[in-house]
User: What shape does this take?
Amino acid sequence: MERFQCVSAMDFVKDWDAWRNTLKEAIGEARKFGVSDEVIRDLGAKVGDFLATKVCPATKEEELLKAMWDVATPEERKTIATLIFKMVK
Assistant: This one.
């Protein structure tokens, strides 16, 4: 079986604060288009699934998030996404 190699997140986000700011801006843009907070959180969980499998953690914070994501149940992943959503509001 062929194993996928992860992509470096540093090509997109340079540090933790930049990542949080980018996420905050994306949430703001989604709200401008009438996307509800519930839908944003659900999408956040789906994006988290993608990131956990395709993007290499580039910071200690990202390593912690990936470790938590990897052991979490689907419901717990939604909780993590909700907490991240609250953190960047």
User: Anything to note?
Assistant: The first helix runs from residue 16 to 32. The longest strand covers residues 7-8. Residues 13-88 form a domain with the Cytochrome Bc1 Complex; Chain D, domain 2 fold (CATH 1.10.760). The chain has four helices and two strands.
